[in-house]
Amino acid sequence: MKNLLAPRTLEFAVQTNEAARSAAEHADIIAEPGFGKHFTDHMVDICWSEMGGWHRPRVQPYGPIAMDPAAAVLHYAQEVFEGLKAYRHEDGSIWTFRPEMNAERMKRSAIRLALPELPTEYFIESLRQLIAVDARWVPSTPDTSLYLRPFMFAKEAFLGVRPAAKVNYYVIASPAGAYFTGGVEPVSIWISTDYARAGRGGTGAAKTGGNYASSLVAQQEAYDHGCAQVLFLDSEKSEYLEELGGMNVVFVYKDGRVVTPESSSILEGITLDSLLQLAKDRGLKTEQRRMTISEVREGVASGDIVEMFACGTAAVLVPIAQFKAEGYTIGDADAPAGELTMSLRQELTDIQYGRVQDRHGWMTRLDA
Ligand code: PLP
Ligand code: COI
């Protein structure tokens, strides 16, 4: 059922929002955006059908999506999404970070969820089209950005369980400050042993809503234990590290090695990939391999592991002070942020905000 036809046209119909927020409302939101609370004045909408492929690309006023109560997504969760950011540079220009990686990942997610693949050039053009009408929503204060949320779901009204023949792709955008209310203060992470995020052959490597739905009880457990996020272990033995509910996890060893868990059921993070590259550029050795929770316990206790952090688009890079689990803790809740952690964070954000040379060609301009 996969649609491999190129879209018929890259020409978007644009309907501007007559009820766009006033300058005063806009200024209030931009002054304190928070995360994921406020949305811009427009959204992108592209239709797909089995017969017609991708068609009717448009930019329209942000607003409710009308759909049939029998739409397959509401029953069977046939959905995928992406997350990336638009950054305002000093000269006012607007850029995004490695969008082709998000486009490729969305294709992989779509394949796993039996959804159609959106061509990369369509994905990138959809971001440009949204920025063309909503550029004023890209904030310019330090560490702020416009979070872009492309998503795609099964809109066909049909209760039989099979891949939908009608799908829509959208992009919405939300001005963003820090993901965690504490900014870049080191956080504590809860290790879930009762719940798993993904299993062998499941959807763990796809960015699909169901993975997040199933993480919520564990995330609640994390909050109940005073932790910011949850770390999931493998579903069979609760022994191997996977990732956090919405971020990858990284450990720095005292000999300079930068190590991150390898598993077929974790999301391939673009922030992670970029940070590993920056670490390699500094001559550090990086390893993506199976890691057990005992290795982490022993490594932190012996002083072999000297820094820990979590990374992802929304939160960028957050130092981890401590892990907590039923019956034990790893590390110290008061541990300061690691030196390499903070310096990698600085280097990555310097590239994203255009403060240093983009030597890997990671940035794509969206407003020209
Ligand atoms: N893992 C999960 C489960 C995520 O939701 C995210 C966030 O997108 C990541 C990892 C990090 O991915 P990226 O760096 O591409 O944002
Ligand atoms: C992101 O970092 O983009 C995410 O998707 C994490 C979370 C907001 C779901």
Question: What does this molecule look like?
Answer:
- This protein has 368 residues and is α+β, with helices and mostly antiparallel strands.
- It has 2 domains: 13-176, Aminotransferase class 4, branched-chain amino acid transferase, N-terminal domain (D-amino Acid Aminotransferase, Chain A, domain 1, 2-Layer Sandwich), CATH 3.30.470; 187-352, D-amino Acid Aminotransferase, subunit A, domain 2 (D-amino Acid Aminotransferase, Chain A, domain 2), CATH 3.20.10.10.
- Helices cover 25% and strands 29% of the residues.
- Helix 3 packs across helix 4 (120-134) and helix 7 crosses helix 9 (339-352).
- The longest helix is centred in the middle third of the chain and has 15 residues, at 120-134.
- It is globular and about 60 Å long.
- Bound molecules: pyridoxal-5'-phosphate and 2-OXO-4-methylpentanoic acid.
